[in-house]
Amino acid sequence: MTTTISAEVTEPAKEPGPFAAFLLRPSTRVALRWLVIVVLTLIAFWPSLISLYDTTRGAGLNGYVWMVPLAGILAAQGVARRPRTELPIHDRQTDVIVGVMGLVFAVLLCGVLMRRYGMWFHLLRFDLLGMWVFVISSAILLFGLRPVGRFLGVWVLMLMVFTLPYQVMVIVLGGSRFAAGAGTLIIAGAATAIAVGRTSRRAWIGAAAAWTIGLAILLVMNFFFDSAPVFLYQIVPSLTAIVLVATAMFLMARRGGSKRPLDRKVEPLAAKQVLSVLPVLVVVTVVLTLVKLPAQGSPPVQQFDALQITGPLAAPAGWESTGAEEYPWVKRLHGKAAMLTRERMVADVGNPRWDKLSRPRTVVVDNVYTNRAFSFFVYPAKVLYDVTATRLSQVRRVDLGYGVTGELISGVDDKLLVTWNMLQWTWRNADRAQRVLVFTVDNHEDDAPFPQPSGALLSTLNTLVTVLFRGNSAVDDTNPEFKDAELLTVFGRGLVAAQLQPLGLAP
């Protein structure tokens, strides 16, 4: 008997081609996933980025936001060079649940909360906070909770794109260019600490060194380049400090060793099932593109190059100014060149249409001028006063001549126990902008209380919290009384004419 032995011959596995091998590299897969996040973020938040560019070009304080992602990238490089300690375990169900919840929250921030605070848009910038939530939620879906948690310090740093804490910080520090730069140094110190913080001692040394170098650069700029744009004060000292300190501490730690910046290999990605979540990201991106930024709603600002903006205003015909008072604290809001001036103006004769006893009426005229015109979009006029106990009406527009459009507002003040009407408008010349506010109250006595300028930052924050939990109805007057609409319209037209007629301008 003959026995036949057969053996199966297996072909060796084919090696992937160069392009396939490139796509299978962990570093390539990481880069491609981040590319997806970046592209979708740009599509979803392009109007927000354009608005931020306009803010920066207009010398607004929110220009610091451009520095935050750059500081975050530099800090992330320091974290990425450290050995990975988290286990390569991923519960994709948990990743998807948390990531989708975050995306829904991003839509609510932009679609609901941002619109509720439309008047405060440039102060709060909830759209940028929504962008942060969108990015971190996308990263959780594409990388998993554990890798995202490894960079927790970087994500907390990136949360500084929410502009309110920075705005408050700059106001507390004085509101100047120097204050704006000092505010960003806090971000720079935190970024440096994260980048070099293998130990808590190194983190504190890095932060202190960054603050010292940044402050030195800031002082030089303030002494020799005091008229430089606000954006340069925010960017140059901070980024220079981060780069110099992080580079120096990296070289000191690698004395006698390899100086390669990326000497740790990229570990394989454990979150492999990502194609199923891409449609979710695309759908949320499309939804966010449908959300419109709040419209300013303010009338156009007329420019009169020959207009002298220096403080007290010339009283209109038939009225007399009885004194002026200055409030320099307004510099904290509108920059070091700003000033708030209050004047009381009294009519020469009484008018029975404005007072049943024909008593001469008194109006209070506040005007704020600044060379940082964009700050008027950031801080509404109500920021100057304590309106926590005041319900305000919607705006009515009135024509004041010369192309100037005013806005009438009525307020019921439960603290002063009066109802006041206010007329406001903004104009500018080639260098400065000026906001004019004219007040009347329904108490016609000589000692009648008017809203007082107070720089009420804390009351403003209280108003924001009230609107958050109770809605705009808590601070709105839905049944306003414009008792002095005629008086304010006539006075406003006269006040505008008193400033522009001497310039040879025609109504």
TrEMBL record:
Keywords: Membrane, Transmembrane, Transmembrane helix. It comes from the Bacteria. The chain crosses the membrane at residues 32-53, 59-76, 96-114, 126-145, 152-172, 178-196, 203-225, 231-253, 274-293. This is Uncharacterized protein.
